Sequence to fold (272 residues):
Amino acid sequence: MSKVRLGIIGYGNIGSQHGRAIRDGKTPQVDLTAVADIDEKRLELAKSMFGEQLTTFTSASELIHSGLVDAVLIAVPIMRCVCFLRGRFYERNSLSHEHRSTARYARQRRGYPWASCWRPSPPKRQERNERKGKFTMKLYFGNAVTTATTLMILALLGYIGVSVWNRGNIACWGRRTLLLLVFGLVVSCFAAARDGLDKTIQHTIDGSCAPGVFPLVSVPTVVGCAGALLIVVAAIATPIARTQKMRELWFYVMSGGAVLKIASMEIARLVL
Fold:
């Protein structure tokens, strides 16, 4: 069976991935003979990958009617997918998410199992992803309080990570645990203000205001209380401990409580 001469329309991220797959021999039944793109730099990239035997075009129409290809792979965000197979030109509107791709259409109509066509995400999905990204940024960097809380949480986690990493060089675990306790209390105050814990308590007492992010009785609140309990126990036990080894152990307990509180709250904020 002779090799299929393939042309790629659009040599961006998707098109170049297909090109590299062909160059690396992952599709031995296919030869890339032509590429079309409006960007000269992308055409130069294709030339550098396949050499002078590759023919380049600045328009899709020229590539399709050049006679150099048996099939066309379209890798551009177009509103209508087209496919050119064995001298026959097929097209299918793909304006809605339910429409089949040109590749499937070509396979069903002409029986060419290697036909393919890439389509971008539907507009609704793209808009939803954009809104989700903006919401996440606002959630952590929406104002001064959320920004400060986010930065302090990252600093606290970094402090714990550095302490664990350099545990062999730390001589005084009591001071390090005390610093963790003070820093953790500051972070907790900022997180409570960020999530409206005072409003949640006031709402539970007399209903005079809207609640905060979490109900007073909820999974993140209960898990956060469990983490706080670990921190309190470690804070009490550390001064009593007589050896640095035991104080190191209580530092890990306090760190685990802090990480548990942070993880439960932040995951719940993303989910809710």
Remarks:
- Strands lie at 4-9, 30-36, 55-57, 71-74, 80-85, 88-93.
- The chain has ten helices and six strands.
- The CA atoms of residues 97 and 122 lie 6 Å apart.
- The longest strand covers residues 30-36.
